[in-house]
Amino acid sequence: MPRRNWTREETLVAFNLYCRTPFGKLHARNPEIIEVATAIGRTPGAVAMKCVNLASLDSALQARGISGLSKASGQDAAVWHEFELDPESIAFEAEQAFSNAMRQELRSTDVVEWEDVRGLDRAAVTKVRVNQHFFRSIVLAGYQSRCAVCALPFPALLVAAHIVPWSVDKSLRMNPRNGICLCSLHERSFDKGLLFINRDYTIALHDEVSSKSSIESVNANFSRFLGSTLTLPDRWHPDPDLLERHIQLVTNASTA
To answer: In terms of C-beta density within 10 A (0-12 exposed, 13-18 middle, 19 or more buried), how is residue 222 classed?
Structure first.
């Protein structure tokens, strides 16, 4: 049987899977990979291999000594770099490709959080809802669905937090390096400047929090993490420059 080259649409489906699937589950026994392989007429091994090949383009995995299969095609590299340059467009295209392949509705969030929907047409609202869902999937998958501070493992209590808020810089809202998986408590604390993450990924606390460390609940939820290192994701580590920018933003807000 002649070798069939991967189409761009199929590559986007594989990219979608790669983004949403913890690295340790990118194998031919994964039920979703089997389902996708059946849908696009390929073997589970071929789909898993395509996903792992994408790992060779991921700098976070390279830093851990995981280079994938190092057989990424030119098309793989093109999709990867397009995502880095324009994550909003490529994320939406990847979700469309996946829904088309699986013959299902586009996955999306119920509520639009990233935009004021007034004045937006239906297509624009749909794109935001789909991208919000995809961003959360990427971030939670990278952190194994655990809070990067306290390791809380309940997805219902986890947030795909933006380092630089989407309201400050829309160009960063789909950038996975601008995301951290945090539980609701630590996400709110990070947003309000009670908990900081330094560019070296160590955790720092606002003086107000440190001054109350003798309180049992403060110690349990905050003080015991002071100076510890944030749990890093499998892929797309938080951008140190964005972490520094976050500190500047919350500091300026508190002194305004």
So the answer is: buried
**How far is Cα 249 from Cα 129, in angstroms, rounded to an integer?**
26
**Measured distance CA(14)–CA(98) in Å, rounded:** 8
40-49 pLDDT, tens digit per residue, is 999 999 999 9
Q: Which domain holds residue 56?
A: 8-107
156 and 246 fall within a common domain: yes
Within this chain, do residues 180 and 249 fall inside the same structural domain, yes or no? yes
Give the total number of structural domains in the chain.
2
pTM above 0.70, yes or no: yes
Residue 111 vs residues 29, 39, 106, 166, 180: alpha-carbon distances, Å: 34, 30, 14, 15, 20
Six-digit token string for 33:
């990979």
Host H or E run for residue 196: strand 195-197
